[in-house]
Specification:
There is one protein chain. This protein has helices spanning 14-25, 63-73, 87-92, 94-114, 148-167, 193-202, 222-234, 253-263, 288-294, 302-310, and strands spanning 5-9, 29-34, 53-57, 77-80, 119-125, 170-176, 178-180, 208-210, 216-217, 219-221, 241-245, 251-252, 271-273. By secondary structure, it is α/β, with parallel strands linked by helices. The chain has a domain at 5-179 and 221-246 and 283-299: NAD(P)-binding Rossmann-like Domain (Rossmann fold). The chain has a 7-stranded parallel beta sheet, with helices on both faces. Helix 1 (14-25) crosses helix 7 and helix 2 (63-73) runs parallel beside helix 4 (94-114). The longest helix has 21 residues, at 94-114. The chain is globular. Bound molecules: nicotinamide-adenine-dinucleotide. Nicotinamide-adenine-dinucleotide is lined by residues 9-10, 12-16, 33-39, 59-61, 81-83, 85, 100, 104, 123, 125, 176, 178-179, 192.
Length: 312
């Protein structure tokens, strides 16, 4: 199968850079676009000398810029990952959330329509479900987002559905659950708990658990997410739909602490503070739809993924 031309927005970020690595390893040609607001070119080091990879620093919410990039690169697919990823910032700056998490999706859709891009793969989030107690969550579960970020992801999904219905652009929305792995910035207070805790244990410092630690998440390894993105953007057969990108396996914070304690036995025991109001207690997805549609199941066991994060 000849390689495809894939444009990746948010390419210098955590999920974006792993997705670029995977696309290049599979023989595709990639244009990575990023404004480097939270991402870093250092994440793209392994592909920087690769002739099938190009990088362009640009703001994806700028219509003119994104149109001219799509026009000149002529991708077969766009993987749209660039976003305002900080949930607290989306709450405190709703206009910025609108620009980056809704308007940018619209610009990507319009550029795809104008320049005959066959397919868009979009980074949605489990945040579209809000706090739903009927676990594991299937894609048919009600979507009642708890704030600006989840609401914007849901609106973007619907924008994409409209472009699919009106213009036949194939659209794949992945609702990522809790993605973890190397290159997730542990310095950010909004980063995933796995990278923050992993970083502290490596430095020999204790962590603080809000609540009793029984809260649980569906942690999905970034390498598996990169595989899903690569598959969805390069499959020959027509592919559209909205899919959970998750493992279907529940891991509590105490499970995470157990693995970390075993690996770093000298680190003092975690402290506990009161649970934070608004924190979702349990989150778990049902991965059967993505498996049926793409023949894909995230396969990295949590202990293996965690090891690769701690070994970096
Ligand atoms: N990490 C997770 O657990 C998770 C879960 C659900 C959804 N997501 C979604 O996955 C996507 C990637 O997230 P991530 O965890 O890799 O975060 P990240 O911050 O590492 O990546 C986002 C990238 O987008 C870039 N960017 C931001 N605004 C831009 C703009 N206007 N123009 C161009 N580039 C811009 C940033 O510089 C960064 O490199 C996001 O859409 C996020 O909402 C992530």
């Amino acid at each position: 199968m000849p390689g495809k031309r894939v444009l990746v927005t948010g390419a210098a970020g955590f999920i974006g850079s792993h997705t670029v690595d995977r696309l290049i390893a599979d023989g595709h040609s990639v244009l990575g676009v990023d404004d480097l607001s939270t991402g870093s070119e250092a994440n793209l080091q392994s592909v920087s000398r690769e002739s099938r990879f190009e990088f362009k620093a640009a703001d994806v919410a700028e219509a003119k810029e994104i149109h001219s990039i799509v026009e000149s690169f002529q991708p077969e697919s766009i993987i749209h990952l660039a976003a305002l990823v900080s949930v607290p910032r989306a709450e405190s700056e709703p206009a910025l959330n609108y620009r980056l998490n809704i308007q940018a999706t619209q610009e990507i859709c319009e550029a795809a329509r104008s320049h005959q891009v066959r397919r868009i793969v979009f980074a949605s989030s489990a945040a579209v479900y809000g706090e739903c107690s009927d676990l594991p969550l299937a894609e048919s579960a009600p979507t009642i987002p708890l704030g600006q970020y989840g609401s914007a992801k849901r609106i973007s999904e619907q924008l994409l559905a409209g472009y699919h219905a009106s213009y036949g652009i194939e659209t794949v929305c992945f609702r990522y659950f809790n993605v973890y792995g190397p290159r997730q910035d542990p310095a950010s207070p909004y980063s995933g708990v796995v990278s923050i805790f992993g970083d502290r244990y490596r430095a020999g410092k204790p962590v603080v658990i809000f609540g009793d630690g029984s809260q649980s998440r569906d942690f999905v390894y970034v390498g598996d997410v990169a595989t899903a993105n690569t598959l969805a953007s390069t499959l020959e057969s027509p592919t559209s739909g909205t899919f959970n990108c998750c493992t279907g396996i529940s891991t509590s914070l105490l499970d995470l602490i157990d693995v970390l304690n075993e690996r770093f036995p000298g680190v003092p025991k975690p402290g506990h503070e009161a649970a934070r109001p608004g924190d979702i207690r349990h989150s778990l997805g049902d991965p059967s739809a993505i498996t049926a549609a793409l023949g894909f199941t995230p396969s990295t066991p949590f202990a293996t993924g965690l090891r690769s994060l701690l070994d970096v």
